[in-house]
């Protein structure tokens, strides 16, 4: 069932690996203390042990980027984890009882949550509990639940009509057993792809929140806040905006490419499912759910 | 068609009501009593009680909610506890600015994405088509506020052709108004355009493989003629979904971009409200944004019915 | 006087030769059947005459229809012929019509495209829908494709094909996707309205009822051609023979004769006679390619049956 390695997988995987390595290494070593404020090094030019120079507080940019990668991954993992743990089971339940009230309820709630983007949730949570990494992660996670639920539901509905599920049901297997033994393994690849794509969106959201001051709080380094701090110096020291901006863009690109690459790699099963969807759409007309499924990437 | 419309409308109204409850309940969790905050620590209990009565926060939550939610329908968002000024007019004024920002962004996104995506699909076998796909993939990875900073760097810092921020109302100076919005529009529009390009491309590619395009060519149309007459409307149906989702993204992206360019829109108002702990203001702005997203969803549903006859018959 | 004459038509996709040196002719008013299993190249032959080959696939040779060359001429010239001089009905009626456009508009489009004014086209649309035996033409014209059945949609396709009174109608398995009960009516209708007909099918019975002459294709080549009655009663090529044996009704209890093996995939056919790896009579001679020999009844076989 595995396909061949493809360009997206290689490039995306490499970029993601770079971010992960930077984050892991930062636990044991960074060139300098990323939070050390030193007036003598204020806006120090790159070179002499300061690979990318220092910011207006004299903090080493390269060290900050490394620790920022940690923040980025941390927020992404927790947010996507929340979304997957809530969204996937809900989607599976809805998909296994496609015409029941439960399915309808799940999808309605889904639509409602969809109306609360991560940023609004983070602002609301921040207003109540004080903004920080935790509120940002929860906000991004909850806002990503609908995407997982939709993908899980669509994939489950397709698996449920296959012969082996019918056989398992005919054999009198319980719902839980079918869900665990048959449905989950078969929709896992779709969920993995969704996780990769959602991770990219989570990175964008975290950067935006930190930029606005609703994310990671100082002194913990964060790419989004590095950008925000550098904005006033854009006229004099543009490199301070360049590096975190590049880091965000490359990390997002990496996870997006990885998602696309995985989708192709995990073919032919995904392709089969996609084609079946297209056929059913043709005969029955396009359904909003079907269309949403493909457009859930952002 | 009527049944479909009524059903969608019912969903819209119900969602709005539930969203109102969620927003209200969330803000009710906020620690601290607005009256106490307003009067400071040295206030007498009598003064606090009086102010509470004046604010109406001494009433049961359900009454407060109904009063607030009922007011929304008439555009009455209450009076700020912090600035003592009515919130409705402020929101209206800021909403107009944000709406202009989002609309301009969307127009730019469409102007970029429809030709680029169609071209990339038609030429998907040659390098130029692949190059467009690659560029759009990179564009997707750049958040709007980063695009804003990049554009400021290029057009304001290097070329010194455009202002790096600030907003001039149209009534004051239409030319300056346009100039002050150009970079914000571009930062929203180019990024969303990149996202949209991918969907337009895959949608047009799908349509190009459809049998009815071959039928159109068998009638005597050329490749492009068949695509133009029979393909684009079919291809637009999935794109409309994405457009709806994107409008929502743009609305939220605008909040951040307003910060970058110091534009007095809804996002600016929201963030100031949070900073000043102006509970009722935050509640009102959040509600407006949420309703806007719900409304966009509703319009997308209607657009389907207009575009696709197969949905019109369906209940 | 021939209406269509095809000489040495070859279709290739890059290195791969999918159709090789196909030659045949159709007289005005003649109904010719093109038989073959899937993968024999019969649909590609038809599509190359329409200039509708998929991307990356190209045709060479000559094909002349009523004085117009069909191969190696610019798309601009072909556009003017398609839907006017030559029309085609496809296999899959469910997807062949634009789902977002009213049926009437799709029929009149083919007429306005070739110069008829709107009002005349609209009026003629109703006549055409009536001619293909659709009940309540006015109502059908206002309908969208999803409101019609497969058989009705195929009739609409036929109406589109006939709209400009073409000289030649090409039908590619037009009834394969339809219910058996609808098939027969559809075939009778096609036989009745077709000017000259190139009818593609894998169903021998259908050819027998529709056509005066048949071409049998296998492995991208015409292996036998001739008057329908003669080919069916006295097949010379061993492939045709096998095909006929396999479709004959056999008495209860006897084994249905089949052709051994299965059709190779494109590019995997043997050198020489394309059928020799499945032919019970194959010998060393078959390693060289047999030419299509014989006048009215031609066959490409070294050891023909009789």
The CATH architecture name of the largest domain in chain B reads: Orthogonal Bundle
The secondary structure category of chain B is mainly alpha
Number of domains of chain C: 2
Neighbour order of strands in the largest sheet of chain C: 6-7-8-3-9-10-11
- DSSP strand content of chain B: under 5%
Number of helices of chain B: 13
Shape of chain C: globular
Q: Approximately how much helix is present in the residues of chain C?
A: 25-40%
Main beta sheet of chain C, described? Answer: 7 strands, mixed
- Briefly note the CATH topology name of the largest domain in chain B: MetI-like fold
Give the helix tally of chain C: 11
Q: State Rg of chain B.
A: 24 Å
- Strand segment count of chain B: 0
Question: What's the CATH C level of the largest domain in chain B?
Answer: Mainly Alpha
Report helical residue fraction of chain B. Answer: over 70%
- The CATH class designation of the largest domain in chain C is Alpha Beta
Describe the protein in words.
The complex is a heterotrimer of chains A (298), B (315) and C (306). Chain A is mostly helical and 298 residues long. Chain A has one domain: Orthogonal Bundle (MetI-like fold), CATH 1.10.3720. Chain A is built from eleven helices and no strands. Mean pLDDT of chain A is 78; it is low at 272-298. Chain B has 315 residues and is mainly alpha-helical. Chain B has two domains: 2-86, no CATH class; 88-312, Orthogonal Bundle (MetI-like fold), CATH 1.10.3720. Chain B has 13 helices and no strands. Chain B has helices spanning 2-28, 34-39, 45-55, 61-73, 87-122, 127-140, 144-158, 174-208, 211-218, 223-261, 266-275, 279-307, 309-313. The longest helix of chain B is centred in the C-terminal third of the chain and has 39 residues, at 223-261. Chain B is globular and about 85 Å long. The mean pLDDT of chain B is 84. In chain C, the strands form two sheets. Chain C has a seven-stranded mixed sheet, sandwiched between helices. In chain C, strands 2-1-4-5 form a four-stranded antiparallel sheet, with helices on one face. Chain C is globular and about 65 Å long. Chain C has eleven helices and eleven strands. Chain C folds into two domains: 4-85 and 168-299, Rossmann fold; 92-165, no CATH class. Chain C has 306 residues and is α/β, with parallel strands linked by helices. Helix content of chain C is 33%, strand content 22%. In chain C, helix 4 packs across helix 5 (118-131), helix 4 packs parallel to helix 7 and helix 7 runs parallel beside helix 8. Classes of the chains: A mainly alpha (298), B mainly alpha (315), C alpha/beta (306). Chains A and B meet through helix 3, helix 4, helix 7, helix 9 and helix 11 of A and helix 1, helix 6, helix 7, helix 8 and helix 10 of B.
């Amino acid at each position: 069932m595995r396909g061949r390695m493809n360009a997206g997988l290689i490039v995306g995987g490499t970029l993601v690996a770079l971010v992960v390595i930077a984050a892991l290494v930062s636990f044991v070593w960074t060139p300098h203390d990323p939070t050390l404020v030193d007036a003598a090094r204020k806006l120090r030019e790159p070179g002499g042990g300061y690979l990318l120079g220092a910011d207006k507080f004299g903090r080493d940019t390269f060290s900050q980027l490394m620790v920022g990668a940690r923040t980025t991954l941390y927020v992404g993992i927790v947010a996507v984890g929340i979304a997957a743990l809530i969204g996937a089971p809900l989607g599976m339940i809805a998909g296994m009882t496609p015409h029941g009230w439960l399915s309808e309820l799940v999808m309605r709630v889904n639509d409602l949550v969809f109306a609360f983007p991560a940023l609004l949730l983070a602002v609301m949570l921040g207003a109540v509990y004080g903004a920080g990494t935790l509120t940002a992660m929860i906000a991004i996670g909850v806002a990503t639940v609908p995407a997982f639920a939709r993908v899980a539901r669509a994939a489950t509905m397709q698996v449920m009509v296959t012969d082996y599920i019918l056989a398992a049901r005919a054999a009198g297997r319980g719902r839980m057993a079918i869900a665990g033994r048959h449905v989950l393994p078969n929709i896992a690849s779709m969920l993995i792809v969704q996780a990769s794509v959602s991770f990219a969106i989570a990175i964008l959201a975290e950067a935006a929140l930190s930029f606005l001051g609703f994310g990671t709080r100082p002194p913990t380094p964060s790419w989004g806040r590095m950008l925000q701090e550098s904005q006033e110096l854009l006229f004099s020291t543009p490199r301070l905006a360049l590096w975190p901006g590049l880091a965000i863009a490359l990390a997002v690109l990496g996870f997006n490419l990885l998602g696309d690459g995985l989708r192709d790699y995990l073919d032919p099963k995904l392709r089969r499912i996609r084609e079946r969807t297209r056929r059913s759409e043709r005969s029955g007309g396009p359904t909003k759910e079907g269309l949403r499924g493909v457009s859930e990437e952002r | 068609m009527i049944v479909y419309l009524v059903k969608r409308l019912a969903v819209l109204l119900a969602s709005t009501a539930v969203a109102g409850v969620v927003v209200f309940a969330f803000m009710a969790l906020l620690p601290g009593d607005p009256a106490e905050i307003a009067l400071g620590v040295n206030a007498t209990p009598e003064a606090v009680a009086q102010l509470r009565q004046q604010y109406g926060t001494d009433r049961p939550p359900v009454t407060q909610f109904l009063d607030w939610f009922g007011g929304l329908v008439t555009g009455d968002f209450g009076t700020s506890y912090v600035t003592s000024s009515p919130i409705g007019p402020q929101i209206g004024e800021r909403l107009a600015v944000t709406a202009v920002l989002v609309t301009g962004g969307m127009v730019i996104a469409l102007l970029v994405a429809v030709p680029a995506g169609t071209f990339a699909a038609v030429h998907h076998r040659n390098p130029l088509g692949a190059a467009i796909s690659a560029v759009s993939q990179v564009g997707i990875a750049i958040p709007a506020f980063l695009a804003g900073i990049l554009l400021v760097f290029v057009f304001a810092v290097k070329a010194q052709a455009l202002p790096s921020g600030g907003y001039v109302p149209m009534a004051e100076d239409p030319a300056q108004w346009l100039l002050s919005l150009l970079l914000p529009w571009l930062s929203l529009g180019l990024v969303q355009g990149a996202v949209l390009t991918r969907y337009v491309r895959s949608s047009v590619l799908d349509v190009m493989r459809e049998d009815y395009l071959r039928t159109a060519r068998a009638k005597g149309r050329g490749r492009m003629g068949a695509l133009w007459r029979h393909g684009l409307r079919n291809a637009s149906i999935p794109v409309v979904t994405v457009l709806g989702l994107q409008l929502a993204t743009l609305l939220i992206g605008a909040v951040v971009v307003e910060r970058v360019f110091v534009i007095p829109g809804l996002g600016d108002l929201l963030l100031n409200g949070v900073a000043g702990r102006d509970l009722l203001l935050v509640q009102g702005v959040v509600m407006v944004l949420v309703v806007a997203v719900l409304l966009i969803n509703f319009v997308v549903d209607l657009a389907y019915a207009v575009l696709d006859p197969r949905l019109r018959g369906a209940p | 006087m021939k209406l269509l004459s095809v000489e040495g038509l070859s279709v290739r996709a890059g290195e791969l030769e999918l159709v090789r040196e196909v030659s045949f002719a159709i007289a005005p008013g003649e109904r010719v059947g093109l038989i073959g299993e899937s993968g024999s190249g019969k649909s590609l032959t038809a599509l190359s005459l329409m200039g509708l080959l998929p991307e990356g696939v190209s045709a060479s040779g000559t094909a002349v229809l009523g004085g117009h060359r069909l191969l190696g001429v610019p798309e601009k010239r072909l556009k003017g012929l398609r839907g006017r001089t030559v029309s085609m009905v496809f296999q899959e009626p469910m997807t062949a019509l634009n789902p977002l456009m009213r049926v009437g508009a799709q029929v009149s489009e083919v007429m306005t495209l070739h110069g008829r004014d709107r009002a005349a086209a609209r009026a003629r649309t109703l006549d055409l829908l009536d001619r293909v035996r659709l009940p309540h033409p006015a109502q059908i014209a206002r309908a969208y494709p999803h409101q019609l059945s497969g058989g009705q949609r195929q009739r609409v396709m036929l109406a589109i094909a006939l709209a400009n009174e073409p000289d030649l109608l090409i039908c590619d398995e037009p009834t394969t996707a339809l219910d058996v009960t609808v098939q027969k009516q559809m075939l009778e209708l096609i036989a009745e309205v077709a000017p000259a007909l190139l009818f593609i099918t894998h169903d021998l019975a259908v050819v027998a009822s529709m056509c005066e002459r048949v071409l049998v294709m296998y492995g991208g080549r015409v292996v036998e051609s001739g008057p329908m009655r003669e080919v069916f009663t006295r097949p010379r090529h061993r492939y045709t023979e096998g095909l006929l044996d396999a479709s004959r009704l056999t008495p209860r209890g006897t084994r249905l004769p089949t052709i051994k093996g299965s059709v190779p995939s494109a590019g995997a056919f043997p050198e020489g006679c394309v059928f020799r790896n499945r032919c019970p009579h194959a010998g060393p001679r078959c390693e060289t390619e047999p030419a299509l020999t014989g006048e009215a009844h031609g066959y490409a076989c070294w050891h023909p049956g009789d």
